[in-house]
Design goal:
Blueprint (H helix, E strand, L loop, with lengths): L1 E2 L2 E4 L3 H12 L4 E5 L10 E4 L1 H9 L4 H7 E3 L2 E6 L4 E6 L11 E4 H16 L4 E3 L1 E8 L5 E7 L4 E6 L1 E4 L6 H6 L7 E14 L7 E6 L3 E7 L9 E10 L13 E3 L12 E2 L2 E2 H6 L4 E8 L7 E2 L2 E3 L14 H19 L3 H23 L5 H10 L12 H15 L3 H6 L16
Parallel strand pairs: 1-12, 2-3, 2-13, 3-9, 6-15, 13-23
Antiparallel strand pairs: 4-8, 5-8, 6-7, 10-11, 11-12, 14-17, 14-21, 15-16, 16-17, 18-21, 19-20, 22-23
Helix pairs in contact: 1-4, 1-7, 2-7, 7-8
The structure holds flavin-adenine dinucleotide (FAD).
Length: about 425
Protein backbone atom coordinates (compact mmCIF):
# COMPACT_ATOMS: atom_id res chain seq x y z
CA UNK A 1 0.00 0.00 0.00
CA UNK A 2 1.30 3.47 -0.90
CA UNK A 3 2.12 5.76 2.02
CA UNK A 4 1.04 9.37 1.59
CA UNK A 5 0.59 12.13 4.09
CA UNK A 6 -2.56 14.12 3.36
CA UNK A 7 -4.88 12.60 0.78
CA UNK A 8 -7.24 14.80 -1.23
CA UNK A 9 -10.05 13.14 -3.19
CA UNK A 10 -10.93 15.45 -6.11
CA UNK A 11 -8.83 17.83 -8.17
CA UNK A 12 -11.45 20.53 -8.75
CA UNK A 13 -11.01 24.14 -7.68
CA UNK A 14 -11.38 23.23 -3.98
CA UNK A 15 -8.97 20.26 -4.01
CA UNK A 16 -6.28 22.11 -5.99
CA UNK A 17 -6.40 25.25 -3.81
CA UNK A 18 -6.15 22.98 -0.77
CA UNK A 19 -3.05 21.32 -2.29
CA UNK A 20 -1.45 24.73 -2.96
CA UNK A 21 -2.29 25.85 0.58
CA UNK A 22 -0.84 22.72 2.22
CA UNK A 23 2.30 23.12 0.12
CA UNK A 24 2.54 26.76 1.22
CA UNK A 25 2.53 25.74 4.89
CA UNK A 26 4.95 22.86 4.33
CA UNK A 27 2.56 19.90 4.53
CA UNK A 28 2.94 17.16 1.86
CA UNK A 29 -0.20 15.99 0.09
CA UNK A 30 -1.44 14.06 -2.94
CA UNK A 31 -4.55 14.79 -5.01
CA UNK A 32 -6.55 11.91 -6.50
CA UNK A 33 -8.68 12.95 -9.47
CA UNK A 34 -11.10 10.59 -11.18
CA UNK A 35 -10.75 11.87 -14.75
CA UNK A 36 -7.80 10.74 -16.86
CA UNK A 37 -7.24 14.20 -18.31
CA UNK A 38 -8.24 17.62 -16.98
CA UNK A 39 -9.94 19.68 -19.67
CA UNK A 40 -11.15 23.30 -19.54
CA UNK A 41 -14.75 22.40 -18.65
CA UNK A 42 -17.53 24.73 -17.55
CA UNK A 43 -18.35 28.30 -18.39
CA UNK A 44 -18.41 31.39 -16.17
CA UNK A 45 -17.96 31.54 -12.41
CA UNK A 46 -17.40 34.43 -10.05
CA UNK A 47 -14.57 34.74 -7.55
CA UNK A 48 -15.69 37.05 -4.76
CA UNK A 49 -13.19 39.42 -3.10
CA UNK A 50 -12.78 37.05 -0.12
CA UNK A 51 -11.51 34.36 -2.51
CA UNK A 52 -9.41 36.76 -4.63
CA UNK A 53 -7.67 37.85 -1.42
CA UNK A 54 -6.79 34.22 -0.66
CA UNK A 55 -5.52 33.61 -4.20
CA UNK A 56 -3.31 36.68 -3.94
CA UNK A 57 -1.88 35.32 -0.67
CA UNK A 58 -1.12 32.13 -2.59
CA UNK A 59 0.85 34.13 -5.16
CA UNK A 60 -1.93 34.11 -7.78
CA UNK A 61 -2.48 37.80 -8.38
CA UNK A 62 -4.34 40.08 -10.75
CA UNK A 63 -1.95 39.54 -13.67
CA UNK A 64 -2.76 35.81 -13.64
CA UNK A 65 -6.49 36.24 -13.07
CA UNK A 66 -6.68 38.74 -15.94
CA UNK A 67 -5.60 35.92 -18.26
CA UNK A 68 -8.64 33.81 -17.35
CA UNK A 69 -11.21 36.47 -16.55
CA UNK A 70 -12.04 40.10 -15.91
CA UNK A 71 -12.71 42.19 -12.79
CA UNK A 72 -16.46 42.56 -12.29
CA UNK A 73 -17.54 46.16 -11.92
CA UNK A 74 -21.25 45.91 -11.16
CA UNK A 75 -24.03 43.60 -9.96
CA UNK A 76 -27.41 44.63 -11.36
CA UNK A 77 -30.95 43.27 -11.28
CA UNK A 78 -33.38 44.32 -13.99
CA UNK A 79 -37.09 43.46 -14.18
CA UNK A 80 -38.70 41.72 -17.14
CA UNK A 81 -39.99 45.19 -18.08
CA UNK A 82 -36.34 46.22 -18.68
CA UNK A 83 -36.27 48.62 -15.72
CA UNK A 84 -33.56 48.54 -13.09
CA UNK A 85 -34.43 47.07 -9.70
CA UNK A 86 -31.05 47.29 -8.03
CA UNK A 87 -27.43 47.97 -8.94
CA UNK A 88 -24.29 48.16 -6.89
CA UNK A 89 -20.60 48.46 -7.75
CA UNK A 90 -18.45 45.40 -7.12
CA UNK A 91 -14.86 44.69 -6.12
CA UNK A 92 -12.45 47.60 -5.82
CA UNK A 93 -15.04 50.00 -7.26
CA UNK A 94 -17.18 49.19 -4.23
CA UNK A 95 -14.28 49.91 -1.86
CA UNK A 96 -13.01 46.36 -1.38
CA UNK A 97 -9.24 45.94 -1.27
CA UNK A 98 -9.62 43.17 -3.87
CA UNK A 99 -11.45 42.79 -7.16
CA UNK A 100 -14.29 40.39 -7.74
CA UNK A 101 -13.34 38.35 -10.81
CA UNK A 102 -15.64 36.82 -13.41
CA UNK A 103 -13.60 33.97 -14.87
CA UNK A 104 -13.86 31.06 -17.27
CA UNK A 105 -14.17 28.10 -14.91
CA UNK A 106 -12.22 25.71 -17.13
CA UNK A 107 -9.32 28.06 -17.80
CA UNK A 108 -9.08 29.04 -14.13
CA UNK A 109 -9.15 25.37 -13.13
CA UNK A 110 -6.34 24.50 -15.55
CA UNK A 111 -4.30 27.45 -14.32
CA UNK A 112 -4.57 26.06 -10.77
CA UNK A 113 -3.57 22.62 -12.05
CA UNK A 114 -0.45 24.03 -13.72
CA UNK A 115 0.46 25.82 -10.46
CA UNK A 116 0.12 22.59 -8.48
CA UNK A 117 2.37 20.70 -10.91
CA UNK A 118 4.89 23.55 -10.94
CA UNK A 119 5.05 23.86 -7.15
CA UNK A 120 4.38 20.34 -5.86
CA UNK A 121 5.78 18.34 -8.77
CA UNK A 122 4.22 16.12 -11.46
CA UNK A 123 3.30 13.30 -9.05
CA UNK A 124 1.18 15.54 -6.83
CA UNK A 125 -1.99 14.90 -8.85
CA UNK A 126 -2.84 11.31 -9.66
CA UNK A 127 -5.25 11.43 -12.60
CA UNK A 128 -7.51 8.48 -13.35
CA UNK A 129 -7.86 7.67 -9.62
CA UNK A 130 -11.48 7.58 -8.49
CA UNK A 131 -11.79 7.45 -4.70
CA UNK A 132 -14.62 5.07 -3.85
CA UNK A 133 -14.47 5.22 -0.07
CA UNK A 134 -12.21 5.05 2.97
CA UNK A 135 -11.26 2.86 5.90
CA UNK A 136 -10.40 4.36 9.28
CA UNK A 137 -7.45 2.65 10.94
CA UNK A 138 -7.12 1.82 14.62
CA UNK A 139 -4.09 4.12 14.94
CA UNK A 140 -6.23 7.11 13.91
CA UNK A 141 -5.01 7.26 10.31
CA UNK A 142 -7.04 6.54 7.19
CA UNK A 143 -6.84 4.51 3.99
CA UNK A 144 -8.43 5.84 0.78
CA UNK A 145 -9.79 3.23 -1.61
CA UNK A 146 -9.27 3.97 -5.28
CA UNK A 147 -10.52 2.59 -8.57
CA UNK A 148 -7.99 3.13 -11.34
CA UNK A 149 -8.99 4.25 -14.83
CA UNK A 150 -6.23 1.97 -16.11
CA UNK A 151 -8.01 -0.95 -14.44
CA UNK A 152 -7.91 -2.44 -10.97
CA UNK A 153 -7.92 -0.85 -7.56
CA UNK A 154 -5.38 0.57 -5.12
CA UNK A 155 -5.22 1.73 -1.52
CA UNK A 156 -3.45 4.83 -0.20
CA UNK A 157 -2.68 5.40 3.47
CA UNK A 158 -2.55 8.87 4.97
CA UNK A 159 -2.94 10.80 8.17
CA UNK A 160 -5.98 12.68 6.86
CA UNK A 161 -8.34 12.37 3.90
CA UNK A 162 -10.22 15.33 2.44
CA UNK A 163 -13.30 14.67 0.33
CA UNK A 164 -13.11 17.47 -2.26
CA UNK A 165 -14.98 15.34 -4.76
CA UNK A 166 -17.89 17.63 -5.57
CA UNK A 167 -21.66 17.36 -5.28
CA UNK A 168 -21.71 13.62 -6.08
CA UNK A 169 -18.99 12.96 -3.46
CA UNK A 170 -18.24 9.33 -2.69
CA UNK A 171 -16.53 10.36 0.57
CA UNK A 172 -19.68 12.18 1.70
CA UNK A 173 -21.87 9.22 0.72
CA UNK A 174 -19.84 6.94 2.99
CA UNK A 175 -19.71 9.50 5.81
CA UNK A 176 -23.49 10.07 5.67
CA UNK A 177 -24.99 6.89 4.24
CA UNK A 178 -28.57 7.97 4.94
CA UNK A 179 -28.28 11.44 3.41
CA UNK A 180 -31.33 12.44 1.35
CA UNK A 181 -30.98 12.40 -2.44
CA UNK A 182 -29.96 15.50 -4.39
CA UNK A 183 -32.52 18.28 -4.12
CA UNK A 184 -33.94 19.89 -7.25
CA UNK A 185 -36.31 22.85 -6.82
CA UNK A 186 -37.60 22.84 -10.40
CA UNK A 187 -35.14 25.22 -12.10
CA UNK A 188 -33.31 24.20 -15.25
CA UNK A 189 -30.36 26.26 -16.43
CA UNK A 190 -29.01 26.47 -19.94
CA UNK A 191 -25.50 27.88 -20.06
CA UNK A 192 -23.15 29.01 -22.75
CA UNK A 193 -20.82 31.73 -23.92
CA UNK A 194 -21.03 33.90 -27.02
CA UNK A 195 -18.93 36.73 -28.42
CA UNK A 196 -20.76 40.00 -27.81
CA UNK A 197 -20.41 43.62 -26.80
CA UNK A 198 -20.44 43.96 -22.99
CA UNK A 199 -23.27 46.18 -21.79
CA UNK A 200 -23.75 48.68 -18.92
CA UNK A 201 -20.33 49.18 -17.25
CA UNK A 202 -18.57 46.84 -19.69
CA UNK A 203 -18.18 44.29 -16.90
CA UNK A 204 -21.61 44.02 -15.30
CA UNK A 205 -23.27 40.94 -13.83
CA UNK A 206 -26.89 41.33 -14.93
CA UNK A 207 -29.84 39.33 -13.68
CA UNK A 208 -32.85 40.06 -15.90
CA UNK A 209 -36.41 38.78 -15.67
CA UNK A 210 -38.51 37.23 -12.94
CA UNK A 211 -37.84 34.78 -10.12
CA UNK A 212 -39.00 31.86 -12.30
CA UNK A 213 -37.95 33.01 -15.75
CA UNK A 214 -34.73 34.93 -16.15
CA UNK A 215 -31.30 35.24 -17.66
CA UNK A 216 -27.99 36.01 -16.00
CA UNK A 217 -25.14 37.36 -18.10
CA UNK A 218 -21.67 38.79 -17.63
CA UNK A 219 -18.43 39.03 -19.62
CA UNK A 220 -15.60 36.66 -18.66
CA UNK A 221 -12.85 38.10 -20.86
CA UNK A 222 -11.38 41.49 -21.59
CA UNK A 223 -12.75 42.95 -24.85
CA UNK A 224 -10.72 42.56 -28.04
CA UNK A 225 -9.83 45.35 -30.48
CA UNK A 226 -13.37 45.19 -31.90
CA UNK A 227 -14.89 45.57 -28.44
CA UNK A 228 -16.11 41.97 -28.32
CA UNK A 229 -15.74 39.78 -25.23
CA UNK A 230 -16.82 36.27 -24.21
CA UNK A 231 -20.24 36.81 -22.66
CA UNK A 232 -21.26 34.10 -20.22
CA UNK A 233 -25.02 33.61 -20.11
CA UNK A 234 -27.32 31.41 -18.06
CA UNK A 235 -30.96 31.18 -19.10
CA UNK A 236 -33.15 29.83 -16.31
CA UNK A 237 -36.69 28.51 -16.21
CA UNK A 238 -38.41 27.20 -13.09
CA UNK A 239 -41.00 24.46 -13.47
CA UNK A 240 -43.07 22.59 -10.93
CA UNK A 241 -40.91 19.78 -9.58
CA UNK A 242 -43.20 17.18 -11.18
CA UNK A 243 -42.37 18.80 -14.57
CA UNK A 244 -42.02 16.21 -17.26
CA UNK A 245 -38.30 16.60 -17.77
CA UNK A 246 -36.34 13.67 -19.07
CA UNK A 247 -33.49 14.09 -16.55
CA UNK A 248 -31.41 12.32 -19.13
CA UNK A 249 -28.25 13.97 -17.88
CA UNK A 250 -27.15 16.23 -15.08
CA UNK A 251 -24.88 18.28 -17.38
CA UNK A 252 -25.48 17.66 -21.06
CA UNK A 253 -24.83 19.51 -24.29
CA UNK A 254 -28.09 20.63 -25.94
CA UNK A 255 -29.26 22.41 -29.08
CA UNK A 256 -30.59 25.98 -28.78
CA UNK A 257 -33.80 24.85 -30.46
CA UNK A 258 -34.64 22.79 -27.37
CA UNK A 259 -35.20 25.83 -25.15
CA UNK A 260 -34.27 29.23 -26.66
CA UNK A 261 -37.82 30.06 -27.84
CA UNK A 262 -38.76 30.52 -24.18
CA UNK A 263 -36.53 33.62 -24.15
CA UNK A 264 -37.71 35.20 -27.42
CA UNK A 265 -39.28 38.09 -25.51
CA UNK A 266 -35.98 39.23 -23.97
CA UNK A 267 -35.46 42.02 -26.51
CA UNK A 268 -34.82 45.60 -25.31
CA UNK A 269 -33.19 48.66 -26.81
CA UNK A 270 -30.01 47.70 -24.85
CA UNK A 271 -30.08 43.91 -25.35
CA UNK A 272 -31.14 41.40 -27.99
CA UNK A 273 -30.83 38.16 -26.04
CA UNK A 274 -32.06 35.78 -28.78
CA UNK A 275 -29.39 37.21 -31.12
CA UNK A 276 -26.70 36.68 -28.47
CA UNK A 277 -27.82 33.11 -27.71
CA UNK A 278 -27.74 32.32 -31.43
CA UNK A 279 -24.00 33.10 -31.50
CA UNK A 280 -23.14 30.49 -28.84
CA UNK A 281 -20.81 27.61 -29.70
CA UNK A 282 -21.78 25.01 -27.14
CA UNK A 283 -24.76 25.09 -24.81
CA UNK A 284 -25.19 22.96 -21.69
CA UNK A 285 -28.31 22.10 -19.80
CA UNK A 286 -28.14 21.38 -16.12
CA UNK A 287 -30.58 21.48 -13.24
CA UNK A 288 -30.12 23.84 -10.33
CA UNK A 289 -29.42 21.33 -7.56
CA UNK A 290 -28.00 21.19 -4.08
CA UNK A 291 -28.09 18.99 -1.02
CA UNK A 292 -29.48 19.52 2.46
CA UNK A 293 -26.87 20.83 4.93
CA UNK A 294 -25.07 18.21 7.02
CA UNK A 295 -24.76 18.15 10.81
CA UNK A 296 -21.00 17.57 10.43
CA UNK A 297 -18.36 17.44 7.68
CA UNK A 298 -15.95 15.38 9.76
CA UNK A 299 -15.53 11.70 10.59
CA UNK A 300 -12.31 11.31 12.62
CA UNK A 301 -9.41 11.75 10.17
CA UNK A 302 -11.77 12.46 7.23
CA UNK A 303 -13.28 15.84 6.29
CA UNK A 304 -15.40 17.18 3.46
CA UNK A 305 -14.74 20.53 1.78
CA UNK A 306 -16.01 22.55 -1.19
CA UNK A 307 -19.07 21.23 -3.01
CA UNK A 308 -18.71 17.85 -1.33
CA UNK A 309 -19.43 19.60 1.97
CA UNK A 310 -21.86 22.33 0.88
CA UNK A 311 -23.17 22.14 -2.69
CA UNK A 312 -25.14 25.32 -3.33
CA UNK A 313 -27.42 26.87 -5.89
CA UNK A 314 -25.32 29.33 -7.92
CA UNK A 315 -27.68 32.21 -7.02
CA UNK A 316 -25.09 33.78 -4.72
CA UNK A 317 -22.14 33.25 -7.12
CA UNK A 318 -20.10 31.92 -4.22
CA UNK A 319 -19.68 28.12 -4.63
CA UNK A 320 -16.14 28.34 -6.00
CA UNK A 321 -15.24 31.19 -3.63
CA UNK A 322 -16.34 29.17 -0.61
CA UNK A 323 -14.34 26.14 -1.79
CA UNK A 324 -11.26 28.41 -1.91
CA UNK A 325 -11.99 29.88 1.52
CA UNK A 326 -12.51 26.37 2.96
CA UNK A 327 -9.03 25.38 1.76
CA UNK A 328 -7.44 28.43 3.32
CA UNK A 329 -9.27 28.02 6.64
CA UNK A 330 -8.13 24.39 6.76
CA UNK A 331 -4.53 25.53 6.22
CA UNK A 332 -4.84 28.08 8.99
CA UNK A 333 -6.32 25.57 11.41
CA UNK A 334 -3.51 23.12 10.66
CA UNK A 335 -1.05 25.84 11.60
CA UNK A 336 -2.97 26.25 14.86
CA UNK A 337 -3.68 22.59 15.68
CA UNK A 338 -1.17 20.61 13.61
CA UNK A 339 -2.04 17.97 11.00
CA UNK A 340 -4.62 16.38 13.25
CA UNK A 341 -8.28 15.51 13.62
CA UNK A 342 -8.40 18.49 16.03
CA UNK A 343 -7.77 20.81 13.05
CA UNK A 344 -10.62 19.12 11.17
CA UNK A 345 -12.92 19.47 14.14
CA UNK A 346 -12.06 23.18 14.41
CA UNK A 347 -12.84 23.57 10.67
CA UNK A 348 -16.20 21.88 11.23
CA UNK A 349 -16.95 24.06 14.25
CA UNK A 350 -16.06 27.22 12.36
CA UNK A 351 -17.86 26.68 9.07
CA UNK A 352 -20.25 23.71 8.91
CA UNK A 353 -23.30 25.39 10.40
CA UNK A 354 -22.76 28.89 9.00
CA UNK A 355 -22.06 27.75 5.44
CA UNK A 356 -25.02 25.35 5.65
CA UNK A 357 -27.20 28.39 6.25
CA UNK A 358 -25.63 30.26 3.30
CA UNK A 359 -26.56 27.26 1.14
CA UNK A 360 -30.13 27.49 2.40
CA UNK A 361 -30.18 31.23 1.63
CA UNK A 362 -29.09 30.42 -1.91
CA UNK A 363 -31.84 27.81 -2.17
CA UNK A 364 -34.23 30.57 -1.09
CA UNK A 365 -33.00 32.67 -4.09
CA UNK A 366 -29.96 34.37 -2.46
CA UNK A 367 -29.59 37.95 -3.69
CA UNK A 368 -32.19 37.22 -6.39
CA UNK A 369 -34.73 37.29 -3.53
CA UNK A 370 -35.25 40.94 -4.52
CA UNK A 371 -37.08 39.66 -7.61
CA UNK A 372 -39.50 37.70 -5.40
CA UNK A 373 -40.14 40.86 -3.37
CA UNK A 374 -40.92 42.84 -6.53
CA UNK A 375 -43.35 40.18 -7.71
CA UNK A 376 -45.07 39.91 -4.34
CA UNK A 377 -45.50 43.67 -4.04
CA UNK A 378 -46.45 44.74 -7.57
CA UNK A 379 -46.61 41.66 -9.76
CA UNK A 380 -43.48 42.89 -11.57
CA UNK A 381 -45.24 46.04 -12.86
CA UNK A 382 -43.49 49.25 -11.84
CA UNK A 383 -42.24 52.54 -13.23
CA UNK A 384 -39.98 53.54 -10.38
CA UNK A 385 -38.60 50.79 -8.16
CA UNK A 386 -38.44 53.20 -5.20
CA UNK A 387 -42.24 53.08 -5.10
CA UNK A 388 -42.04 49.31 -4.60
CA UNK A 389 -38.93 48.70 -2.45
CA UNK A 390 -37.22 51.75 -0.94
CA UNK A 391 -33.51 52.06 -1.70
CA UNK A 392 -32.51 51.49 1.96
CA UNK A 393 -34.49 48.25 2.08
CA UNK A 394 -32.82 46.97 -1.10
CA UNK A 395 -29.35 47.84 0.22
CA UNK A 396 -30.06 46.24 3.61
CA UNK A 397 -31.21 43.04 1.86
CA UNK A 398 -27.97 42.82 -0.13
CA UNK A 399 -25.77 43.62 2.86
CA UNK A 400 -27.41 40.84 4.90
CA UNK A 401 -26.53 38.37 2.15
CA UNK A 402 -22.94 39.54 1.85
CA UNK A 403 -22.44 39.34 5.61
CA UNK A 404 -23.76 35.79 5.73
CA UNK A 405 -21.60 34.74 2.77
CA UNK A 406 -18.44 36.22 4.31
CA UNK A 407 -17.70 38.97 1.83
CA UNK A 408 -19.14 42.02 3.59
CA UNK A 409 -16.71 44.81 2.71
CA UNK A 410 -15.74 46.36 6.03
CA UNK A 411 -15.19 43.08 7.81
CA UNK A 412 -13.16 41.64 4.93
CA UNK A 413 -11.01 44.74 4.43
CA UNK A 414 -10.06 44.77 8.11
CA UNK A 415 -9.54 41.01 8.50
CA UNK A 416 -5.98 39.80 9.05
CA UNK A 417 -4.55 37.24 6.61
CA UNK A 418 -6.00 33.75 6.97
CA UNK A 419 -2.50 32.26 6.57
CA UNK A 420 0.08 34.62 8.07
CA UNK A 421 2.88 35.51 5.66
CA UNK A 422 5.67 32.93 5.65
CA UNK A 423 3.98 30.70 8.24
CA UNK A 424 4.70 27.01 7.89
CA UNK A 425 4.10 24.12 10.21
CA UNK A 426 7.08 24.08 12.51
CA UNK A 427 7.80 27.78 11.99
CA UNK A 428 5.98 30.38 14.08
CA UNK A 429 3.38 32.53 12.33
CA UNK A 430 4.44 36.11 11.57
C1 LIG B 1 -16.83 19.72 -15.07
C2 LIG B 1 -17.38 20.80 -14.18
C3 LIG B 1 -17.92 21.96 -14.78
C4 LIG B 1 -18.44 22.96 -13.98
N1 LIG B 1 -18.95 24.08 -14.58
C5 LIG B 1 -19.44 25.08 -13.83
C6 LIG B 1 -19.94 26.26 -14.45
O1 LIG B 1 -19.94 26.41 -15.66
N2 LIG B 1 -20.43 27.24 -13.63
C7 LIG B 1 -20.46 27.10 -12.27
O2 LIG B 1 -20.91 28.00 -11.55
N3 LIG B 1 -19.99 26.00 -11.66
C8 LIG B 1 -19.48 24.99 -12.41
N4 LIG B 1 -18.98 23.86 -11.80
C9 LIG B 1 -19.03 23.78 -10.32
C10 LIG B 1 -17.97 24.64 -9.66
O3 LIG B 1 -16.72 24.47 -10.27
C11 LIG B 1 -17.93 24.23 -8.19
O4 LIG B 1 -19.21 24.52 -7.63
C12 LIG B 1 -16.93 24.97 -7.35
O5 LIG B 1 -15.78 25.30 -8.07
C13 LIG B 1 -16.53 24.13 -6.11
O6 LIG B 1 -15.53 23.24 -6.53
P1 LIG B 1 -15.16 21.84 -5.89
O7 LIG B 1 -13.71 21.68 -6.18
O8 LIG B 1 -15.60 21.74 -4.48
O9 LIG B 1 -16.02 20.79 -6.71
P2 LIG B 1 -15.96 20.41 -8.25
O10 LIG B 1 -15.66 21.59 -9.08
O11 LIG B 1 -17.19 19.65 -8.55
O12 LIG B 1 -14.69 19.43 -8.36
C14 LIG B 1 -14.72 18.08 -7.90
C15 LIG B 1 -13.61 17.34 -8.61
O13 LIG B 1 -13.54 16.02 -8.07
C16 LIG B 1 -13.51 15.07 -9.12
N5 LIG B 1 -14.16 13.86 -8.60
C17 LIG B 1 -15.47 13.61 -8.46
N6 LIG B 1 -15.66 12.44 -7.84
C18 LIG B 1 -14.43 11.95 -7.56
C19 LIG B 1 -13.98 10.78 -6.91
N7 LIG B 1 -14.84 9.88 -6.40
N8 LIG B 1 -12.64 10.58 -6.77
C20 LIG B 1 -11.74 11.50 -7.26
N9 LIG B 1 -12.14 12.61 -7.91
C21 LIG B 1 -13.46 12.85 -8.02
C22 LIG B 1 -14.24 15.73 -10.27
O14 LIG B 1 -13.83 15.21 -11.51
C23 LIG B 1 -13.82 17.19 -10.10
O15 LIG B 1 -12.61 17.47 -10.76
C24 LIG B 1 -18.44 22.83 -12.54
C25 LIG B 1 -17.91 21.67 -11.95
C26 LIG B 1 -17.36 20.67 -12.75
C27 LIG B 1 -16.77 19.42 -12.10
Amino acid sequence: MSQENILIAGGGIGGLVLALTLHQIGVPCTVFESVRELRPLGVGINLQPNAVRELENLGIGEAELDKVGIPAREWALVGLNGKEIYAEPRGKLAGYRWHQYAVHRGQFHLMLYRKVIERLGPDAVKLGHRITGYRKQEDGTVVALAELASGGTAEFAGSILFGADGIHSAVRAQMHPSQPPIQWGGTIMWRGTARGVPIRTGSSFIGLGTSRHRVVMYPISHPDADGLADINWIAEQTYDTDHDWTKSGWFRAVELSEFAHQFDGFVYDWLDLPALLAKSDVVYENPMIDRDPLPTWVDGPVALMGDAAHPMYPTGSNGASQAIVDARVIGRLMLDHGVSPAALQAFDDQLCQSIGSVAMRNRGAGPFGLLNMVEERCGGQFDNINDVIPAEERSAFMLAYQQAAGFAKDRLNLASRTIPEGATLGRAAA
